[in-house]
Amino acid sequence: MRRDTALALCGLTAAFAVTLWLDPWADQSVNDLFVYRSFAEPAIHGSLPYRNVFLEYPPLAAPAIALPGLAGTGEAAFRLAFAGWALLLAAVVLLLCGGLAARTGGDRRAAMLGVAVAPLLCGAMLRTHFDLAPVVLTLGALLLLVRGHPRTGMAVLGTASMTKGFPLVAAPLALAWLAGRGDRRRALEGAAALALVILALAGLALASSPSGAYGALRFQLERPVQVESPPAMIVLALDGVGAGRAESTTSHRSDGLEHPLAGELAAAFELALLAVVALLARRVARRPEPRALVLAALAAVAAFAVLGKVLSPQFLIWTVPLGALALAWRELALAAAVAAATVLTLVEFPSRYFDLVAREQFPIAVVALRDVALLAAVVLALRALGRLRPPAEGAAEWRSRGRRDPPRSARRSAMDPRPRSRSGPGCSGRSAPGPARGAPL
């Protein structure tokens, strides 16, 4: 193992230890471990998700939640086992971010450093939620795609989406990126692989219990506007100026708000999400370099987090790779926006969460600033994507032939712009010109 990788993993482990024993990072007064234990214990003893035990997530969430229960489902044992599981997943995130940075022209060490310090920004929520599992699968899918394995990459993206739904927003961007590279056949094959995985896993859930699977979907769709989301902040503002009363409600394992305009606000934000994904897809199709795909996919995940009617604190875990890779790409404003959103979440959650529910001004202001910072991160990611250089002249020829990479001779010319001397029959021995400006990279 390389020395810098070993040091990054040691730093990650030390930061994780802080979340176990030092406040405020160790504060887990609000967490999902009890819910997970309630699922893990019967699941380990043979109960089927959806049929015998309620599961509000897609089917592959079941092993991600239940696996730590093999070490014990008592409160203390499960807490430590889940922390160890989260640390293992975080280590994989660190390695994948390093690999993606290397593949996209970024600083590998900076990316790994960004992940290593993430526990200090996130606090205990990083080890009390299973969200690192779909993050790992999403990053693995992106790495496979940029390495030239579209079918496998899209299949892995399908498994990520069936662990928790948010990775699905990266799918249209990946397909647009493949089509923009001229890989239309591979884009279709990737789409088929994605659909096959999703349909197969959905079929397993339906086979287990049609009513239970439908109940899990309905559980997510019928959730009210959650108290930490941007629509909730607008609802509270409307209540403050007398434009309708915001009623607190506790349902769907969260605290929400009911308001006459809550449904319309949620729908408006969902339309904004669709618009952002469409804009990202358009831009990434015109910039078929690997960094464009990774940046657009992670920006879409951040947009999904901030533009939905639910913004649970653990959603900030999804943005850790965006912040780490922004640091690796020297997109410092973007990295700072992601870090600010994460730190503001730690300020509010969990220590001031119930103050927020009680509508005290300070936590409301903190959450509003957090939401603004996360929105700023999406905007900055769009700007960074727009600044990427468009494909070089001549790339269209390679795309039209459906090739993933330029010819070797062209790659050699682009990589080594120095003049070359010629000798042999028909050559004068003078230096030949280097590649023309705009040669494909």
Mean pLDDT: 89
Shape descriptor reads globular
Helix content: 55-70%
Provide the structure class.
mainly alpha
- The run of helices and strands is HHHHHHHHHHHEHEEHHHHHHHHEE
Distance between the termini: 30 Å
Radius of gyration: 24 Å
The oligomeric state of the chains shown is single chain
* Secondary structure: number of strands: 5
- Show unreliable segments: 391-441
Counted up, domains total 1
Strand residue content: under 5%
Number of helices: 20
Largest sheet: 3 strands, antiparallel
Strand order in space, largest sheet:
1-3-2
List the SSEs and their pairings.
Elements: H1 3-21, H2 33-44, H3 61-66, H4 75-103, H5 108-116, H6 118-122, H7 132-146, H8 150-161, H9 171-180, H10 184-208, H11 210-221, E1 225-226, H12 230-240, E2 247-251, E3 254-258, H13 262-286, H14 290-306, H15 320-328, H16 332-348, H17 353-357, H18 361-387, H19 395-400, H20 408-415, E4 420-421, E5 431-432
Antiparallel strand pairs: 1-3, 2-3, 4-5
Helix pairs in contact: 1-4, 1-5, 4-5, 4-7, 4-15, 5-15, 7-8, 8-10, 9-10, 9-13, 9-14, 10-11, 12-13, 13-14, 14-15, 14-18, 15-16, 16-18
Q: Describe it for me?
A:
The chain has one domain (3-387). Mean pLDDT is 89; it is low at 391-441. A hairpin with a 2-residue loop joins strand 2 (247-251) and strand 3 (254-258). It contains 20 helices and 5 strands. It has a 3-stranded antiparallel beta sheet. The relative contact order is 0.11. It is mainly alpha-helical and 441 residues long. The protein is 63% helix and 4% strand. The two termini are 30 Å apart.
